[in-house]
What we know:
Blueprint: E1 9-12, H1 16-30, H2 35-45, E2 52-55, H3 56-67, H4 72-84
Antiparallel strand pairs: 1-2
Helix pairs in contact: 1-3
Amino acid sequence: xxxxxxxxxxxxxxxxxxxxxxxxxxxxxxxxxxxxxxxxxxxxxxxxxxxxxxxxxxxxxxxxxxxxxxxxxxxxxxxxxxxxx
Length: 85
């Protein structure tokens, strides 16, 4: 098994709902003023095969914010997750 350094770049492959949640977290995290700024950010990090490439520490930080960050986003995400089951 490969051991990763937190500064290693990794690629994740979100499904459609995952991309939506990822975009919501990025908007909250980086306070993008427009959809264009968010899309520019994503273009730089999207791989040719449709993955999202970022440093491991950044991915883990985004996951943490997707699942729990003490904001109303968590409450709506939790409701979404419950509805999907």
